[in-house]
Amino acid sequence: MTIPSLSALRRSLLSFVMAGAVTSVSAACAQSVTTLGGVNTSFHLFGSHDVQVSSFTDPDLPVTCYLSRAQTGGIKGAVGIVKNPTRFSLSCVKSGGVPTDITKLPKQQNITKLRNSFLFTNLVITRMIDQEHSAVVYLVTSQGLIDGSPANAISAVSW
Prior knowledge:
The chain has 159 residues and is α+β, with helices and mostly antiparallel strands. It is built from two helices and eight strands; from the N terminus they run αβββαβββββ. The protein has helices spanning 6-29, 74-79; strands at residues 33-42, 49-57, 63-71, 88-94, 108-117, 121-130, 135-144, 149-158. The strands form two sheets. Strands 1-2-3-4 form a four-stranded antiparallel β-sheet, with no helix packed on it. A four-stranded antiparallel β-sheet has the order 5-6-7-8. It is elongated and about 55 Å long.
């Protein structure tokens, strides 16, 4: 029986601490996301691959966004250990009146994070204010524990 070296134990401990920090930050940034449904795209014996549609609202503006994303099925997908593909689409609509003063909002702000795969990737939705064109832009990107993906989707709502 071999005993792991002290540096290997430190690396393992650091990995667990970082994973916990990422999970905590995700929980703090996350807000109410409602799953509306999904469409089966491929059958597997222990679970199918789906395209899932979710909705969430901007915490500061009367805007509702709809996000579709691929969800991997099978045993690994059910357990949550597979890395889901970073394929997604975003559409946002105004769901209320014009806010009183949009200029008080930060020019750019992350408004929500969604876990895409257990400990691997999060989908981050960022709101950007375009005062010159009287619009609010929503950008979704994939951010991984180590690196992200250039995949992205964008939606704009005019004021």
